[in-house]
Amino acid sequence: MLLQLRDVYAGYDGGDILKGVDIAIAQGTTTCIVGPNGAGKSTVLRVLSGLLRPRKGAISFDGRSLVGLSPRQILALGIVQVPQSHSLFPSMTVHENIELGAYLLKDARLIRSRLQEIQALFPLVKLRAREKAGSLSGGQQRLVEFARCLMLDPRVILLDEPSMGLDPHTFKHVIETIRLLQSTGRTIVLVEQNARTGLSLADQGIVLENGQVRLTGTHTEVLNNPEIARLYLGGTLSNT
Ligand SMILES: Nc1ncnc2c1ncn2[C@@H]1O[C@H](COP(=O)(O)OP(=O)(O)OP(=O)(O)O)[C@@H](O)[C@H]1O
C-alpha cells in the first residue's frame, strides 16, 4: 500500500476526533471518504498533510513514517493538498499563480518542463497565461488551482470537498479536472459531501462515522450497501 493509516487517534483541544482509524490506499487509485458532518473526514486529510499530528497510531507513505514530519516535509515527499477554492492571487496572472506552485523547486529547467507538461494537460493554463487569475470564471480558477498543485509532481493529491459551493457548470468542470488528474496515474484522496458523485469517481469508498471507519469497499459496494444508501445517499442526493 502506498499510504496507510493504522489505528490513528487525532483531534483538537476538545479531545479525539479520529478514534482508531485504519485506511489503506493503493498507488494510483482514488479513495473517497464520505460520512456525516463532523465525522472527521477533513481531520483525516489534516493528519495526512501534517497539519495535525496524531496522538497515537501510525501513518506510512511508501514505507516511511509520516508521523512528526512538518507539512513542508510531507509536501516535499509528494503529498499535496489542493486548497479549497479562492486560493489564487486574483491580481496576479495565471502564469504567476502556476509558478507559485513550484516554490519548493530550485531547478529552472525542471520548472520549465513541469510547466510544459501542465500546459499540455490543461491548455487553458497556456491560453490564458497572461491574464489575471481574477478575470477567469469560477471553474477556470478551480482548474488553475488543480494545475498549480501539479508543479510539484505530487504522488498523492488530497482534495477536501472540491465541489463545495459550486454552481452546476463549475461543478462539472471540477469533476472533469479530477478525471484528468486520475488519468495521470496520481493517487487521490477525496473528501466529498456529495457522496454519490464522490464515490462514483473513486475506486475505494470509505464511510467515516464518529471518527471511525464504518465501512470500506469498492465504490459500488459502498453505494449499494443498503444501510449506507439509506443514511447518506438517500433521496436528496439521487439527482446529482
Ligand atoms: N481546528 C479545530 N479545532 C477544534 N476543533 C475542530 C477543528 N477542526 C475541526 N474541529 C472539530 O472536529 C470535528 C470533525 O471535524 P472535521 O472537519 O474533520 O469533520 P468532517 O467530517 O470533515 O465534517 P464537515 O463536513 O462538517 O467538515 C468537528 O466537530 C469540528 O468541530
TrEMBL record:
InterPro entries: AAA+_ATPase, ABC_transporter-like_ATP-bd, ABC_transporter-like_CS, BCAA_Transport_ATP-bd_LivF, P-loop_NTPase. It holds the Pfam family ABC_tran. Residues 3-235 form the ABC transporter domain. Keywords: Amino-acid transport, ATP-binding, Nucleotide-binding, Transport. One of its GO terms (molecular function) is ATP binding. It comes from the Bacteria. The keyword Lipid metabolism does not apply. Belongs to the ABC transporter superfamily. This is ABC transporter ATP-binding protein.
